[in-house]
Amino acid sequence: MLNSMYGMPDRKLLSIFLEHTPAAVAVLDSQMRYIATSHRWLKDFGLADTNVEGLSHWEVFPRIGDRCKQIYQKSLAGQVSSCEQVVVNADGSTDWMNWEIHPWSDDAGEIGGIIIFSESVTERKSELKYRSIFDAANDLIFICDIETGEIVDVNQKAADVLGYTQAEIRQLGLSILCLEESPYALQNVKQWMQNVLAGEQQIFEWQTQNKQGRRFWVEMRMKLAQIGDRLRLLANVRDITDRKQVVDALRQSEAREREKAQRQELLNQLAGQIRQSLELTAILETAVGEIRNLLQIDRCSFAWYQPYNNPPVWEIVKESCAPQLDSLTGVYTAPDVESVAERDLRSEILRIDDVSEFLEPNHRKILFSLGYKSVLSLPVRTASGLIGAIVCGNCRSPRAWKDAEVELLQAVAAQLAIAVNQADLYAQTREAANIAREQAKQLEETLYELKRAQSQLIQTEKMSSLGRLVAGVAHEINNPVNFIYGNLSHAKVYVQELLELVRLYQAEFPVPSAAISETMNAIDFEFLTDDLPKLMTSMEVGADRIREIVRSLRNFSRLDEAEMKFVDIHAGIDSSLMILQNRLKSQQDRPAIEIVKDYGDLPQVECRAGQLNQVFMNILANAIDALEERDSKRSIEEISLYPSRITIATEVQQGGLARCVVIRISDNGLGIKEAVEAHLFEPFFTTKPVGQGTGLGLAISYQIVVEKHRGKLECFSEKGVGTEFAIKIPINQGH
User: How many CA atoms lie within 13 A of 253 on its CB side?
Assistant: First the structure.
């Protein structure tokens, strides 16, 4: 201990000692004020420009914790102590410091203060933290010298996994991760190390083994890393055996599924071709080609056994083989392939992985002569008794046939048997079908004409009966309506006169009797006198409407009139619209269909009015059907924004030597497909569901316009825009 700390000679000596000591030392009095410090102390704590003499230790280090303060108090009581503390330096940096604290005494033996020896342990702390993380890492970590490639450090995980001690690993080097065979040899690792030194990070999968010889897969990452003050090569190794096994299992599963899908595709292709075609030659050609490609074999062929030849023969009719092989298609006599024939006759499968090991010498000789080193042959038997065979073979090397391949060929053989059976049936029935087809065609044409004539006759009779019925109903309604309408005008006058009389009474006798007042209140006299004229007017409007409907019915009822007359075409159109009014008006699910009339100045036209009315009715009804179908798929807002509309335009045209009238009826519906438009005027052609259309409406309309009025009926349609029917007939049928 130092004595006489405040004596001048001793103090000077102390200053000289502290100035030259390489340690960080500070001398404090019992009040924890600085007496003297070493240059190292001031430098370490960033106090070189600060005069700390006389300052309190708590002023210089205001963040010292309570635990260290307690230790200082123990030292002031005479105990040598030490503590570690994170210190915030004057420049704001932090350090882990180890402080060793000794008390010092004065001449009287009293404790005069403490001497603090300071040492930075930040680097040691970092090293311990790094080591704990290094050894706790789940990967194998190797730190190598960039010049020699030697392992300078390795973590405990590497030792545990590889079965060596860390010292053994450092001694053996990276060769511990290598195998003798390529590509897992040491020279590859050295090359990758050179790539890392050139600035490239290396990531690769690698197979290695532990001390016990168990092989496993790792992923190795190599890069340069600054560790301490040295540049090192860091190799991070991760065991990926489980991942590789999962990937390999997935790859094998995918391969199996792909192979299964390819086989199913072959079967589907054959089944589809069999369904679509009865060309057995094409089916066999597809089969042998696809089988060879799928199984990756040298040759696949199909042969027929013909036992009724003399002598019996095998004929290879279709074959697919590798380009360098000669074709085997042709005829082979039974003695040459007798043993093969016997197996096929017994429906046996011939499965030979290696022909050289086959026990039957004659059969082995035949197969060798054909160039086979392995063979798989499956018989094909048809319902008619034909015998064939699918023959697969390898010519370059033996091949082990898989059970799945045998199952595939069995399925193919079944499909080919079906194809042969169908081809036989087709051949047997083709001639009879040709004869029957001619007879059926003649019968069909006769029936078609009869059906057409019958349907048109029925339709004409129905329309004629309808005309008579409508005329009768119109006549029966017309008489009482005329009676009502004729009396309404008189009733209206009588009501007005009675009301005038009542008003006169009210003027002459403004104060009625109690009985009259009571009756007036009971019948709501004021409302009655106001509403009665309106009621009469409403009845008159209703009667007008009934008369208009009756007039339209009578006009339309001229369907049964066969003779030509000069009539008002517009009246016929209006009559049809009147009858269809119930379909045109607004419904629960849509607004009303708009009718736009663009009538020209037409003269009266010579025609069969009832038949033309039928044409108008058919075309207008079809237009309404088309618009209703389109509106059923639209919202009310869409319909209101783009309303359904039927436009009727008429005009006079000069048609050659005679003048004609043209009536155009168009809608803004979805239009008609070209395929449908081509058949519109054919009898019985309809796109409507069964029970909703006969397919005769437009056919009869076409006949009425073209045949009975020497006119034209044409359809113009654009998909998504709408459809227009144009009716063109001469004004005078005599010209």
Answer: 6
User: Residue type at 445?
Assistant: E
pLDDT tens, position by position, 662-673: 999 999 988 888
pLDDT at 507 over 50: yes
- The model's confidence at residue 167, banded by pLDDT at 50, 70 and 90, is confident
Q: At what angle do helices 361-369 and 338-345 cross, to 10 degrees?
A: 110
pLDDT band at 1 (very low <50, low <70, confident <90, very high): very low
Report the distance separating Cα 404 and Cα 646, nearest Å: 67
Among candidate residues 55, 44, 57, the one with its CA nearest the CA of residue 94: 44
CA neighbours within 13 Å on the CB side: how many for 66?
0
CA distance linking residue 679 with residue 684, whole number of Å? 10
Preceding peptide of 311 cis, ω within 30°: yes
Residue 703 DSSP one-character state = I
Q: For residue 50, is pLDDT > 70? A: yes
Q: Residue 218: is it exposed, middle or buried by C-beta count within 10 angstroms (0-12/13-18/19+)?
A: buried
Work out the burial of residue 72: count CB atoms within 10 Å of its CB; fewer than 13 is exposed, 13-18 middle, 19 or more buried.
buried
What pLDDT was estimated at residue 391? Answer: 92
CA 268 vs. chain centroid, Å, equals 24
Q: Where does the pLDDT of residue 343 fall: very low under 50, low under 70, confident under 90, or very high at 90 and above?
A: low
Chain segment 412-443, per-residue pLDDT in tens: 888 888 877 877 777 777 777 777 777 777 77
Assess whether pLDDT exceeds 70 at residue 691.
Answer: no
Burial class (CB in 10 A: 0-12, 13-18, 19+), 6: exposed
Of 192, 198, 194, the residue nearest 237 (C-alpha) = 192
Average pLDDT over residues 139-159: 84
Query: In angstroms, rounded to a whole number, what is the distance separating the alpha carbons of residues 391 and 297?
Result: 11
In this structure, the number of other CB atoms found within 10 A of the CB of residue 594 comes to: 13
| CB contact set of 170 (below 8 Å; sequence gap of 6+) | 150, 151, 152, 153, 154
Average of pLDDT values for 690-699? 65
Q: Cα-flanking dihedrals φ and ψ of residue 200, to 5°?
A: -100, 130
CA distances from 594 to 50, 591, 614, 715 (A): 101, 9, 21, 21
DSSP H helical segments within 147-240, as ranges?
156-162, 166-172, 186-197
Question: ω before 183 within 30° of 0 (cis)?
Answer: yes
User: What is residue 9's predicted lDDT score, i.e. its pLDDT?
Assistant: 46
In this structure, are residues 718 and 671 in contact, taking their beta carbons and an 8 Å threshold? yes
Angstrom distance (rounded) from CA 613 to CA 555: 9
The 3-state DSSP composition of the chain as helix, strand, coil percent (nearest 5) reads 50, 25, 25
Q: What integer pLDDT is reported at residue 726 of this predicted model? A: 94
Place of tokens 């042998």: 288
Predicted local confidence at residue 5, as pLDDT: 46
Determine how many CB atoms are found less than 10 A away from the CB of residue 50: 13
Between 360 and 88, where is the model more confident?
Answer: 360
Reference 385, options 270, 273, 304; nearest CA is 304
DSSP helix/strand/coil, 571: helix
Answer yes or no: are the C-beta atoms of 303 and 392 closer than 8 Å.
Answer: no
Per-residue model confidence (pLDDT) at position 17:
76
